[in-house]
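Worked Example 4.2. Consider the chain below.
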Amino acid sequence: MLIIERIRRVFRQCIAWSFGLAMVTLLAYGQSGSSPDKPEKSSVADDPAVTMFPHSATARYWISGQDNIIFQYHPSFYAKYSGPNSLRPQAEDATSNVSTLFLGYQLTHTTEVLFDLEEASGGGLSDALGLAGETNLDVVRNPLLSKAPYMARVMVREIIPLSKETVEVGRGPLALATPLPVRRLEIRAGKFGMADFFDVNSVGSDSHFQFMNWTIDNNGAYDYAADTRGYTFGVFAEYRDRNWAFHFGEALMPTVANGPDLQWNLRRARAENYELELHPRIGSNRTTIVRLLGYENHANMGVYRDAVKNFLAGLTPRPEIRAHPLWTKVKYGFGVNMEHVFTPELRGFARWGWNEGQHESFAYTEDDESFVFGADFLGQRWHRKLDKIGAAFVSNGISADHQHYLELGGLGFLLGDGGLNYGRETIVESYYTAHVWRGLFIGPDFQHINNPGYNRDRGPVLVPGFRFHLEF
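Applying the procedure from the previous section yields the following structure tokens:
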């Protein structure tokens, strides 16, 4: 009965939010100046078949929204022992709900202002503790944060044309201008998520339509700058040519690991991110993209080896990664991100990530080395062209220093079973997304996790789930 009542409560909230957004969208669309006798140009992002309401492709403003509800459950599983940050071995369920309102306005053909308002409620299994590959990307990692709506993104986008030739691109909530110069420089400044622009993958990056696991939708070893909700302030610059692009980002780091507050003193903390994007031609009429990532974080980070030494010397009751003087340390890492279109229905992707693993996991998850591959398949074969099925496998690992720290009872911001019998955390996830009507999508998800939290003494864990998504 408790689960049923929770579902009813979430649906009531969803319906109320959806009705309000619908009224705003209908009013804005009615005032767009478009003539019903002359349909406007559309794009994939604006296709009325996959949104509740059509979006103008020529208006200077943008209004849209999403609501994503995820139900997850795991039955009881074997655990030799548990600690403060363990995935609980008792059966449990959790529901998350993320609602987003996207607003944008084109000041000129080359200047845009974008603003997103978001609300996150509910939570994750075991308060999103005990796994490097947390099962729900929508979960806010600090259950004590306010449930009130918050500003997720606010940024200015400036496009600097470097060629007269243009290319038609899809319009969406983070990019309004179309067409765009083939060769151009783009600069964005404000608040955004680093994962909005770095390590993006069209097959595995969207928890609203694709996979749900943190280390499948993102590179687990990419400890990108973010506050607890996943956002930061910074500057993003992109140079784009026909067959390649280069990205650079400078962003603020949190004051403490997984903290809600950002450090504004760049001498104490900051993050530099670099990514080279290549579009090699492999065969005819095939699309391949390769992204090479590098990053370095400057922050007040602890060192796993020092924390262990202090514990063995009797200076702390257990290894404590935060027990150190105020200092600025540097953590760096690399990543490779590939995607390829095999047929019009079948796409594949793979990621590899690594960081040096000596300094504490600080912003994303506790993962020092990760490898993932997977694919999705459109439902055209069974006459459901907007349906999609996907499957992926990920293997996560941590450094020897990180292992020793957890083995002796140390706690990270996500992990800490009180002990550790190390083994790589491996996860298989599969999903089906069904298009019901216009902007309504539903579908089941299933995850199987071996060695949760890198611990052979716990698991395996089965996590079935179900997603309800509205696209306005």
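Confidence is low (pLDDT under 50) at residues 1-48. The longest strand covers residues 92-106. Compare this with Example 4.1 before moving on.
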